[in-house]
Amino acid sequence: MKKKYISMLAAGLCITMLTGCQETPKDTIVKQKGADAVKSYESAETATDGLLRESLGAPMHYTNKASYEGGGLVIDTDADVILPEVKALSTYAVSARAVNQELIDTVSDAFFEEATFYSAYTYKEWTKEDYQEDINRLKKYKSEGNLDPYDMGVDENGQPQFDIDEQIAWAEQSMQEAPDEITKEEVKPSFGMKYWTGKGEERTEEVDEDSFYGVAETAQGTYDYSVKYGLAPDIVFSIAKDGQKATIDSREFSDWLDTACVLGSEENGENRLTEDEVKGMLDISLEDARRVAEEKVEKLGWGLELYNWDYAVYHHGEGGVNRDNILDAGYMFHFTRKLDGTPVTFTDSYGGGLEDMDSTLTPWSYERCDVIVGDDGIQKVEIFNPYEIGEIKTENVKLMDFDSIIKIYEQMMEVSNADITEYENNRTYHIRKIVLGYSRIYDPATDCDTGLMVPVWDFIGGFDAITDDYNVKNNGEYSNQSFMTINAIDGTIIDRELGY
Q1: Could you tell me which residues come within 8 angstroms of residue 122 by beta carbon, excluding any fewer than 6 positions away?
Q2: Residue 267: predicted pLDDT
């Protein structure tokens, strides 16, 4: 996705979210949500002998196509209806797992057997050789007439955001003070690690009170390893193999990306990636890769299970993902937990957003565990906010029937996109999966690290959007994006980006 495309698409997505947060009209069929609504959850009077699909009247597939705003908004629902094979669902108390040395050790031991850890501050310090390579590269760009090699553009005054001459001068000065070799300072993954900043008389000692930045040397390769708890209660563990990064410009953007938005999109035209091309880059089978991921996650001891998987590619540069800028490929595995045989539904949303920039609430993002495995093992791991599941709050909770949920979905998709034609000429949603599973909700105004696991319906797919400046097309076939989340108990709308 090019920069312009990203900014436009982000604007479109923001519009969707903002309109989704507008006040519900008086004639809608959605009840207001809040603490009082949660207290009113009740158990079903009698237990059913059949599975939920039968008791809720849910079909195997649901199809409906509706047009609004003079054809400017189309909701095309052609979706498999996915339910757990259980007879009943309950609600559960949930809280953030305690963040302490034991938690850090659990993750470290699970993913790094017999590893040696070093401080990233000294391990990643540039040597004279590193600066010289950077200088040579920048001078080569300049000789070729490429004064903006990182596509940073200009500021509001028309001045370049990236001054190549200034950067060359800075690198030449820094090289004079750089060491000939790096210093490998062995450490233990933990908070409170000390490090030094500045040079000469300005050199001062600092302490990472709520984070850890390290490098792990293993028999499988070298990994960057960080633990971040600066935005408590959110905690994030990040693991990334330091392999392909060494082959490209260190200033150039590079990262792993799941291919859901790439394979389902028509962006990049003839140069866009195909599933067969991604498969052709892999020398490890899905089964073997899955085994590697599951063995690591099982060692965490949290009861996480594989939910689904996707292909992933390691790309570099600002020009979007295409066959010209991909360096590697792998499989991305998404893990969630199950409660009485029913999984927590995985979506693209991280949760933990704020309703506006002036909010003083403390957000809490969802639990998440994603593992990428390539030909030579683990490539990247991200773990967010592990949960502690508590007691059952409402056993065999009473759920709304499928027809009632569909009525809410169809009406609220229209309401939440009521002004979409003010920003886009046309938008067509392609809903491809309707899923009943668990999600966590909470009240950040009351408590930012405890909540409730409740059954919800998610409506997952993609969309086409047309404006005067861009044309986005995504058929939703590979998507994990939920465009509507409905509480299966009382029909209230849950904002996936906020988490409640």
Answers
A1: 182, 183, 184, 185, 195
A2: 58
Structure tokens at 196: 């030094």
How far, in Å, CA of 328 to CA of 313, rounded?
Answer: 6
Distance separating alpha carbons of residues 362 and 92, to the nearest angstrom: 22
Question: For the range 203-206, what are the long-range contacts, defined as Cβ-Cβ under 8 Å and sequence gap of 24 or more?
Answer: none
pLDDT single digits (tens) 354-379? 888 888 899 999 999 999 999 999 99
In the numeric block, the tokens 């993913």 are attached to 111
- Residue 49 to residue 55: CA distance in whole angstroms: 9
Q: Which two tokens stand for residue 499?
A: 């988490």
pLDDT (tens digit per residue) in 261-293: 667 666 545 556 788 888 999 999 999 999 999
In this prediction, residue 319 carries a pLDDT of: 66
The two tokens of residue 66 are 């509706």
Decide: 63 and 77 in contact? Cβ < 8 Å.
Answer: yes
Q: Which residues are CB-neighbours of 94 under 8 A, at least 6 positions away?
A: 387, 388, 389, 390, 440, 450, 451, 452, 453
How many CB atoms are located within 10 Å of the residue 204 CB?
9
CA distances from 8 to 11, 12, 149 (A): 5, 6, 23
Give the span between the Cα atoms of 489 and 397, in whole angstroms: 7
